[in-house]
Structure formats: structure tokens, C-alpha cells
Specification:
Elements lengths: L2 E4 L3 H12 L6 E5 L14 H7 L3 E4 L5 H9 L4 E4 L8 H4 L5 E6 L7 E2 L2 H7 L4 E8 L9 E8 L6 H24 L15 E2 L15 H11 L6 E5 L2 E11 L9 E4 L2 E12 L3
Parallel strand pairs: 1-2, 1-4, 2-3, 4-5, 6-9
Antiparallel strand pairs: 5-7, 7-8, 10-11, 11-13, 12-13
Helix pairs in contact: 1-6, 5-7
Length: about 280
């Protein structure tokens, strides 16, 4: 079974490491040209990884370019992984490997198709989320599932913690399934459309704290969009106050330090950042 991998970020490289840790190997790696996405969060260069393991490394400006498709076919790739990659693969690319293309999505599909999976999992108050390895098709996160790894949530879970847990789940799921993929022992399960939901994309301005809402809602928003996301915020005295960490107090707790008063309690601001909006 010949495996290929497409990535340009640290999480993808961690998944590549996981493949080798469980006895698998790669027959082709595709990444961006060195001059592209140099400021992208987590950007990595895979020359050393591929050189040490004698894996062909192909660099291209776009995954749908003819050179990528030709490389996949030339190396007779059976399964191609695309993880940590922002370009959308077209059908010609998806049909280039003999078995197909596999991707990871940070929810328990079919729940949470779409974007902003980590913030939405917290905002929606779900008890569990996770990561799904699935076969890509022409839809958005609609392809059949190979496996999933669950992550439990509680009222203290925040985006920083969940982001790391999602990364860990990617690696664990890869280690679990690579031996089955290599031995052609996988089962593709069609997603249950009756359970499907779509989570829309979010913008930085969606982090505005509703001062007429509740302390509970505000605290949940803070947890959902803290680092590595843009953060929950309010505008006060010409300054944007980004709240990175907060805590709820009862209405009688009036002696705490920096806080925001809501109808149902006080939101203590534990960690924040001020930005002058007049500059």
C-alpha cells in the first residue's frame, strides 16, 4: 500500500511522524514552494524529513496543478492524506490516487461540518467533540468515515486547551488507523445525514461581548475564542479590551478587581489586553 501526504504545517508533520512510529512509510510528500505561506501559523519545511527517510518531496504552488497530479500517478499512490492544507482539492486530484484522498476534520462528523470547529464546540456547549478521519469527496466534510477519536468537554474547557487536544487526537487517530490502512483492513462508514449539522465560519468581530447579555454567555465566548483565536472583546473609553481569560462571580462579589457587571453576575477579567482604537 503506497501512501502520500500533503501538508505545510507542524500538525501535518506530526501526523507524518506518527505514520513512521507505527511502522508505516510514505512514498511521496507534497508541500508548498518555499516562498509561499511564509507567515502562515505553524508553517514547516519538509526537506530534512524527506531526505532522512528517502521520500520524494514535490513542491508546488497549488495542489490541483498538473505537476501534483502527475507526481501522484507517477508514484502509484494508493491513499493520499491532505492535512493542514488550505487549498481545496478538485475532483481530478481526488481521483488521482487509486484508493482516494483522506482528510481529518476536528469534529465527530457528521456533526459540525464546515468551519470554526473548536470555537463552536465550546459555544454550543457540547459534551464531547473530537476528530474524524474520512475520505474526501465532492461535498464539504461529507465523505465516508474511517475512524474517530473523542474529546470530552466541560464548563472549564477553553480554545487553547481544545486546540492542543485536537492536535493530540489527530496523532492518536493516525497511529490507530495506519496499520489497518497499510493492511487494507479499513471499513468506510457512510455518514448519517439525519445527524448532520453545519457550523458556519466565524469572523474576529463575532467576538464582541454582549454587555446586555449574561455573564455565563460572556464567559463562554471568552473560553471559545481565546488563544490561538482573536479573542472576545469590548470597546471601552476608546480602547479595544481583549479578554483572554475570565471567571464568573455572583452578584454580591463586588470587591473583586477588574470586572464587567451583567444582570446575572460579574465577569472577572483575569487576563486581558488593551488596544488603542484611535491609532
Amino acid at each position: 500500500m503506497k501512501l502520500g501526504f500533503v501538508t505545510c504545517v507542524a500538525l501535518g508533520k506530526s501526523c507524518m511522524d506518527a505514520i513512521y512510529e507505527v511502522g508505516g512509510e510514505l512514498s511521496l510528500v507534497i508541500t508548498l514552494k518555499d516562498s509561499q505561506a511564509v507567515n502562515k501559523s505553524g508553517r514547516v519545511y519538509l526537506d530534512e524529513f524527506c531526505r532522512d527517510r528517502d521520500v520524494p518531496l514535490h513542491k508546488s504552488s497549488h495542489i490541483n496543478n498538473d505537476d501534483c497530479i502527475e507526481a501522484i500517478k507517477a508514484h502509484s499512490i494508493d491513499w493520499l492524506f491532505i492535512i493542514g492544507w488550505s487549498q481545496i482539492a478538485n475532483m481530478e486530484l481526488l481521483n488521482s490516487p487509486s484508493r482516494g484522498v483522506l482528510g481529518m476534520h476536528p469534529t465527530l462528523l457528521p456533526v459540525g461540518r464546515g468551519r470554526a470547529a473548536i470555537p463552536w464546540a465550546i459555544l454550543k456547549g457540547v459534551e464531547k467533540t473530537g476528530v474524524t478521519l474520512f475520505k474526501l469527496d465532492e461535498g464539504v466534510d461529507t465523505g465516508p468515515v474511517l475512524g474517530q477519536k473523542e474529546i470530552g468537554l466541560d464548563e472549564n474547557s477553553d480554545a487553547s486547551w481544545l486546540y492542543q487536544e485536537v492536535d493530540n487526537a489527530h496523532i492518536a487517530l493516525m497511529k490507530d488507523l495506519i496499520p489497518k490502512i497499510m493492511n487494507d483492513q479499513i471499513e468506510l462508514l457512510v455518514q448519517d445525514e439525519s445527524q448532520a449539522s453545519i457550523w458556519e465560519g466565524r469572523k474576529p468581530e463575532d467576538g464582541l461581548i454582549n454587555l446586555n447579555g449574561s455573564a455565563f454567555e460572556a464567559n463562554r465566548l471568552v473560553r471559545a475564542v481565546t488563544h490561538p483565536y482573536p479573542g472576545a472583546f469590548l470597546i471601552r473609553d476608546g480602547k479595544k479590551v481583549i479578554v483572554w481569560k475570565s471567571r464568573i462571580h455572583g452578584l454580591k462579589d463586588v470587591n473583586i478587581g477588574t470586572h464587567i457587571k451583567f444582570k446575572d453576575g460579574l465577569l472577572e477579567i483575569i487576563e486581558y489586553q488593551e488596544i488603542d482604537t484611535n491609532n
